[in-house]
Write a structure and sequence with these properties.
single chain, about 400 residues, alpha/beta, Spore Coat Polysaccharide Biosynthesis Protein SpsA, Chain A, UDP N-Acetylglucosamine Acyltransferase, domain 1, 2 domains, nine-stranded parallel beta sheet, six-stranded mixed beta sheet
């Protein structure tokens, strides 16, 4: 089956994370949305319809990983195709439609369509042309997955995502630590459990990926995923719903939060119901609020725009390469833009635009070259090169952020 994964015009609602990656590379459970989409649809070939600025990134970083033929921004040919929204989160396999059909969201957005439309292209999706909107006239079918509206949805659904991913893990429990319900604890090769660790899987599985290290006297309550080469600090407390991508450093208390990967939160401080981008550094004592004192719904702020989160519990969204000084306090629903630095002696504002350097005295622009220099230094510490494509993506993020964050 030919599967087309399209970003659509609402990609900006997942900012700041989609300033630096296509929507389908957002993280959930133990993997990206893309990994789940491929697992659910089992395509014979894949086409990605992305923003033009993300096309070369997708060719270089995504196509080589597919395992099936792939292309970027090519129009449909004569073969019927399953058109799948990039923000779709699958918890199970997808039953292939037998005839042309469509799944429509309450707001009229096309979530999925199965159709033969030779010549239909990514520009039709992004510009909502008549050729694209005519798909709404197809027979309606029931959704088989969820369609996120913003990063807060991925956080709220993360426990379910972890549970659905866990059925693909059959590795044995690791040696060491005090284990509660060890049949639901799975560790891949190279995992190290230091003395005094408690692994409690009584409320959900604990999934430990290759070469991760759990520091002495840490407590982990499933469902939790710890990615390859990640390190949990001694005496850390990871509560349910936590997903850590590769090479994270995490300490203190963390609850129901997603770290895309390569992020540092090594020290004390609470982070709850938050989404943390790649290469973020949180200074010692960084703490998020994830509940309003009124117990009301937390709203997400994108500059002058405001989104209903539909959530009582919601922490902060920290864009890629954000840097927070020691004792940073983040309000519920905080937005910290990509490449920004905060060094404050009071609670951070609810919205910080991308590529800003914010102190108690000033709020100044962060030059992209300077942000790239800092990013390169940080990545070198993990033996990962900051290459020309990384720089181009950062330059694109700096150009597009003002329009997204207005």
């Amino acid at each position: 089956m030919h599967v087309v994964i399209f970003e659509g015009s609402q990609w900006a609602d997942f900012a700041p994370f989609t300033l630096t990656r296509p929507v389908f590379l957002l993280f959930s459970g133990t993997s990206t949305l893309l990994a789940k989409q491929l697992r659910a649809t089992k395509p014979s070939r894949v086409t990605f319809w992305v923003r033009d600025e993300m096309a070369e990134y997708t060719r270089q970083k995504v196509l080589p990983t597919l395992g099936v033929p792939g292309s970027v921004n090519t129009p449909l040919d004569d073969e019927p195709a399953l058109l799948l929204g990039a923000r779709t989160l699958h918890f199970a396999g997808l039953e292939r439609p037998a005839t042309e059909c469509v799944v429509i969201e309450d707001d009229g957005l096309i979530k999925l369509a199965y159709a033969s439309r030779p010549g239909l292209s990514h520009e039709d999706v992004l510009n909502k042309t008549a050729a694209w909107t005519s798909l709404r006239d197809l027979p309606r079918t029931m959704p088989q997955a969820r369609f996120g509206r913003h990063w807060g949805d991925l956080v709220a659904w993360n426990e379910e995502s972890l549970l659905s991913d866990s059925i693909y893990w059959n590795d044995p429990a690791p040696e060491g630590g005090h284990q509660v319900q060890p049949e639901d604890i799975h560790a891949r090769p190279g995992v190290k459990i230091m003395p005094g660790v408690v692994l409690d899987a009584s409320h959900g599985p604990i999934l430990l990926d290759e070469n991760c290290v759990i520091g002495a006297n840490a407590v982990i309550e499933g469902p939790v995923y710890i990615g390859p080469q990640s390190r949990i600090s001694p005496q850390a407390y990871l509560r349910s719903g936590v997903s850590l991508g590769p090479q994270c450093r995490v300490g203190g208390e963390v609850s129901n939060s997603i770290f895309i990967g390569h992020a540092n939160k090594s020290h004390d401080g609470f982070m709850g119901d938050s989404y943390v981008g790649a290469w973020v550094n949180c200074g010692a004592g960084t703490t998020t609020s994830n509940l309003k004192s009124t117990y009301g719904e937390v709203r997400l702020t994108l500059g002058t725009r405001s989104l209903d989160s539909g959530r009582m519990f919601l922490g902060a969204g920290l864009g890629d390469h954000a840097k927070l000084a020691t004792n940073t306090l983040l309000p519920s629903g905080a937005y910290i833009g990509a490449g920004s630095m905060l060094a404050l002696d009071k609670r951070a504002p609810k919205f910080t635009a991308s590529f800003r350097f914010v102190t108690a005295e000033s709020d100044e622009a962060m030059a992209v070259d300077k942000a790239a220099e800092v990013a390169s230094r940080m990545q070198q510490r993990r033996s990962i090169q900051f290459d020309e494509m990384d720089k181009k993506v950062m330059e694109y993020a700096a150009r597009v952020a003002p329009t997204v964050e207005l």
